Amino acid sequence: MVVLYKGKFLNSYMVDIDNSQFLEGIRRKNVEILKSIYREFFPMVRRFVLDNQGTSQDAEDLFQNALEAIYLKVREDQLVLTAKFSTYLFELCRRQWYKKFRRKKFESSVTMDDPMVLREIEAAMPILEQTERYQLYREKFGGLGADCQEILTLTLVEERDFREVTAIMQLSSEGFARKKKHDCKEKLLKSIRQDPRFQELKS
Amino acid sequence: MSFSDQYNDIERYIRGELSGEALEAFERQLQEDAELAQEVRLNKELEQALKDQDAIAFRRQLTAISSEMATSSGLVKAKRLPEWAFWFATLGAILLIFWLIWPDKPRNAHTPGEEKEKSDTSFQAPAEKIIASKETDKKRSPETNTTEEKRIVKPYEQEYLALAESFYSPYSVSSLRKDQKNELAGSAFELARQAYIDKKWELVIQILDHPEQDLRTESLKLRSHALFQLRQFEKAAEDFKELSDGFSFYKYDAEWNQLLCYLALMPEKTVAFEALLHKILDNADHPFREKALKIQKEVR
User: Fold this and answer.
1) What is the pTM of this model?
2) Which of A185, B123, B209, B251 is 20 to 30 Å from A25 by CA-CA measure?
3) B45: nearest CA in chain A?
4) Cα(A46)–Cα(A63) distance, rounded to whole angstroms?
5) Do B177 and A5 touch (CB under 8 A)?
């Protein structure tokens, strides 16, 4: 139920939004729903991480990874939840955190009485792990110099040919553009491979 | 094949640009060379990660929301109390107990009740400071003279009270968005919110005597904490209970604060305290479980 106050939609006081409203809000990137999710659920994730030797930034990363994974699944129409949205979201965060510490004993908050819920969470794990890896790649890409970011965007993302790249970036020759792209990509791949998180995230 | 050629082949393979013999040769090589297979996977994922502008935009949106909320509210990024604060408070509580049970107190020693009258608080134990600061707050607010406050607290009850207050974290009121400000301007809830910020606890309770149904949860958060600040633990516990029974992530906070209310009312509320303590301890996911364990040790 969406709470109305004097005929207006007040998200900070939403207490009874159901799963479909959350998922639809995420799919549509609805700012108000996303804010409500942050306001309602992030404090709990943050508290969990802080109580388990983590930082606020760690909590932020887990929370955003989980939401991105949910976004990717709803975008592909792959998510129908029987679990409560809050349970699902918190469990995705918890699992990332426990995986980070490679804890042998994993205590799930989902009991064995909930096989459907357990299946839903298990089904989300591949995309969640992919999200973590993609986030690392994007972070490393963001750490490159402006020139490298530009040439890799032009060649890898926009798939432009080297004639165009040479013209856009006003480089001396196509040969130089090829070399620059190669150097930049090598630099990016090296920084990814050297990050300890990459080894952890490699499945 | 040079390193550069191999990169080109990987990219062409990923984009489906290899064909015929070149494709067959590359796929044979992929099956034999695990390192190459891993390299192909990394390159493929890297391209996908950078190309998914939709996901990147979603992520940016989340980051923007997080920053906005951190700026407008102290809640999201609020720093938690350091670990030493807990131990300091515990030590204070122990010192207070010793002080209370010591048979040969100097004749001019002041009781905790007289603490508020004493201007020099430089050598107070932490728990005493907590109590003293509450008393000072009350002194500033003339409306706080209630029946429950007048309850005579016996020395051994002081111990529970000090412990409950040392574990208590005041509720931080979040700022309102601009549209909410306009909408709520002049409303009873907004007045109560301002009163809460100004620490006018009695006023908060008066305004929210019958909270509007639409804003009941938010109103109860304010009222319950105002009651706690006034040491009206019975009433505070009732409000916290209602909050913990509802759907909200605040339910765990509410349950925890309800426990602190029962602790403050010990030994009268021992049964209720024990029941709720075990409910929290039995829930492995309860965010306050660790703290509940600490309280359990203290109480024993």
Assistant:
1) 0.51
2) B251
3) A134
4) 9
5) no
Q: Spell out which residues of chain A touch residue B61, defining contact as CB-CB under 8 Å.
A: 29, 31, 34
Closest CB to B214 among A3, A156, A157: A3
Q: Give the CA distances from residue A202 to residues A140, B41, B230, in Å, rounded to whole numbers and listed in that order.
A: 16, 10, 55
Instruction: State the average pLDDT over residues B122-150.
Output: 40
**Closest residue by Cα to residue B81 from B172, B174, B176:** B172
pLDDT confidence of residue B127: 36
d(C-alpha B35, C-alpha B37), whole Å:
5
* Residue type at B19 in one-letter notation: S
Cα→Cα distances B16→A181, B11, B234, Å: 20, 9, 71
Q: Does B17 touch chain A (CB under 8 A)?
A: no
- CA dihedral B111→B112→B115→B116, nearest 10 degrees, is -130
Give CA–CA dist B263/B257, Å, rounded. 10
Rounded Cα–Cα distance for residues B85 and B104 (Å): 30
Per-residue pLDDT of chain A (203 residues; tens, 9 = 90+): 333 333 334 344 444 567 888 999 999 999 889 999 999 899 999 998 888 888 888 999 999 999 999 999 999 888 878 888 988 999 999 888 888 776 444 455 555 456 777 788 888 889 999 999 999 999 999 999 999 999 999 998 888 999 999 999 999 999 999 999 999 999 999 999 999 888 878 75
Separation between Cα atoms, residue A25 and residue A56, nearest integer Å: 25
| Distance in Å from the first CA to the final CA of chain A | 41
Q: Cα dihedral sign for B163, B297, B155, B231? A: positive
Give me the amino acid identity at B108.
Answer: N
Decide if A68 and B183 are in contact by the 8 Å CB cutoff.
no
